[in-house]
């Protein structure tokens, strides 16, 4: 493959880009406009209405001021539970733009159209993307991904291949650093998606020496590092000047070797499994998860073997250098953080890097048999994308929309009984994570239970009563709230809401209908 300065243009290219924009919308269409929320969604709705500025301050205290600004504005416009569908739509549309942007940049880096389109199509279907598409308050992560891609697009203008002096190259590099800083100030882990495009450019540079590759890679890593550093410096300055208060969660990891071993065993396998979802400890191991991890490693080994036949140690060294360095940079922020939470929303870039090498390995293997190999590789990649689309659609329904809608319907049942004049005593028995009605569970993302704590129960109930009495500023005065995990005696309360009770929504009743007022 040869490197071009600009992606090829034509009806086929732009038509493919348009289809890639539509792919996430079609995949997630069945859940975007369903009536449901997820954990923090309910608290965020109240805070946007009753505590202006709080969302921004909380997010900014974690180094994400742009995330806070986007979330506060969009949630205020959303207004209620039905409005959360608008947030999900924003995230899905942004994922479509991400796929189209990646496709065009891959063509510009010399990728053939078929593998470029299939890799770009896979990215908005990965588990990390499913979290963005299905969890309303996560939608600002998608613009951060686009900023990371934009930073690479700017940097490639200032860091051409092969190296050559260009006018205004410094300006392009500075603009790339600025875009990377903006992405970091939105959501640190998403801005690192820049590295996915670097990986794609690296595997296309088959004529480069290991030394040239290392030099080129170091310059891109420098752009990323400067962007991260600029964002960190601005955040620390805001803390020092008293403009923002640092969060207690902003703590650096102290046990690096232990964290490294933990990341290899708890984080990396999730990226290697690509579209196959993991499950929380103590729950049944998902079908195909370990198998997919093994398939990915075997395929990468085979791809490296073909690269060795073509370019010898230089080619293998280039791949290994890129894979190790880019994997490290994509997980660097989470690695340095004191928390250990292997969530999918923090490994999107890491999954993207391994996806690039997965696709490149399959293309390499296809090239071994010039007559039929490339076609077979394309068919296999197409099968991966099709299976990923089916999984994304199914998991969005079964692990997000339907379980959360059941919880919401249970709480609605109790909220309908609230009569302001009587100021009833309400007891909510909140659930445990093991009470989920979803077929699988992973952390607080897939198949999780929202109402597993008092604060979630209180926020959800308040939001539902607020829908019945929208003219009231504070509806919590209409009832007396108590909660717990043990079931209370019916004689002590007027309304009992048991979130641990198995629930099936009656047939013929739309989950999108608001409660009667």
Could you characterize the architecture of this molecule?
- This protein has 517 residues and is mostly helical.
- The chain is 62% helix and 3% strand.
- Strands 2-1-3 form a three-stranded parallel β-sheet, with helices on one face.
- Helix 19 links the parallel strand 1 and strand 2.
- The chain is globular.
- The N and C termini lie far apart (64 Å).
- The relative contact order is 0.12.
- Residues 1-5 and 503-517 have low confidence and may be disordered.
Portion of residues in helices?
55-70%
Q: Spell the H/E element sequence.
A: HHHHHHHHHHHHHHHHHHEHEE
Which ranges are low-confidence, i.e. pLDDT below 50, for 5 or more consecutive residues? Answer: 1-5, 503-517
Question: Reading side by side through the largest sheet, how are the strands ordered?
Answer: 2-1-3
Provide the gyration radius in Å.
Answer: 24 Å
Separate helix tally: 19
Distance between the termini: 64 Å
Sheet with the most strands, sense and barrel status? 3 strands, parallel
- What is the mean pLDDT? 90
Q: Quick one: how many beta strands?
A: 3
Q: What is the strand content?
A: under 5%
Class of secondary structure makeup: mainly alpha
Q: What spatial form do the alpha-carbon principal axes imply?
A: globular
Summarize this structure as a short list of keywords or feature phrases:
3% strand, mainly alpha, three-stranded parallel β-sheet, disordered C terminus, 3 strands, globular, disordered N terminus, single chain
